[in-house]
Amino acid sequence: MAIGPTLETRRLLLRPPVQEDFDGWAAMMADEESSRFIGGVVDRNAAWRGMAAMAGSWALKGFAMFSLIEKESGEWLGRVGPWQPEGWPGTEVGWGLLKSACGKGYATEASVRVIDWAFEELGWEDVIHCIDPRNAPSIALAERLGSRNRGPGKLPAPWQDAEIEIWGQSREQWRRSRERLYASPSASSA
C-alpha cells in the first residue's frame, strides 16, 4: 500500500514506492552505471534500507521520490521526485533510472510532472538538483528543465565528500521554463 498520491503523465505512473518495487530498486542499485551518481553500488540489504528510507520519508515528511512505472508494461523504471533529508542543501527534485530506461525521455517527462507537483502541492519556492559535475546526462536534463548551475554544493554525511554542483530554479523561473519546454516541437516526445 502506497502512502501518498499517484501522479500521471502520458506514458508514466508515479507513486510512492511499495514492496513490489524492490527487485527493480535493488537491480538499479546493483548496476554500476545506474547507481554511479546516486550513492554507488550496494547489495540487496542496503538497497532495501535505501528504499525503506524513501518510503519512510513519505510517512514523515509527506513527500519523497516516486517509483516510476511505465503505464503500458507496468515495469518499474526508476525513481524520480522530491527529496530533502536532514541537512540537505535545499528542496531537490532528483532522479535515478535503470540503465534500460535511460535515453527515452522518461526522466524529463517525470521531472516536469514532479516539479509542477512540488510547486503546486508542496508549496516549494525553489527546486534544486544536486549533480556530480561528471554526470553529463543529468546536467543535460537539468538544463532541459531550465535549471542553471549555481555552483558547488555540500551534502550531509555520509556523502560529505561527494563533489556536487547545485543546479536549480525558482518557482517563477520554472513557470517560464515550462512554457518554453512545452512550446518546443520535441516536447511531445520528452
Describe the SSE topology.
Layout: E1 7-8, E2 12-15, H1 22-30, H2 32-35, H3 44-61, E3 66-70, E4 76-83, E5 92-97, H4 106-120, E6 126-131, H5 136-144, E7 148-153, E8 164-170, H6 171-183
Antiparallel strand pairs: 1-2, 2-3, 3-4, 4-5, 6-8, 7-8
What does this protein structure show overall?
- With 190 residues, the protein is an alpha+beta fold.
- 36% of the residues lie in helices and 23% in strands.
- It has helices at 22-30, 32-35, 44-61, 106-120, 136-144, 171-183, and strands at residues 7-8, 12-15, 66-70, 76-83, 92-97, 126-131, 148-153, 164-170.
- A 5-stranded antiparallel beta sheet has the order 1-2-3-4-5, sandwiched between helices. Strands 6-8-7 form a 3-stranded antiparallel beta sheet.
- The longest helix has 18 residues, at 44-61.
- Count all strands and give the number: 8
Task: Please tell me the overall pLDDT.
Answer: 91
Order of helices and strands: EEHHHEEEHEHEEH
Strand order of the largest sheet: 1-2-3-4-5
Query: Strand-residue fraction?
Result: 15-25%
Show unreliable segments. 185-190
Largest sheet: 5 strands, antiparallel
Helix/strand/pairing category: alpha+beta
Evaluate the radius of gyration.
15 Å
| Shape verdict | globular
Distance between the termini: 30 Å
Share of helix, binned: 25-40%
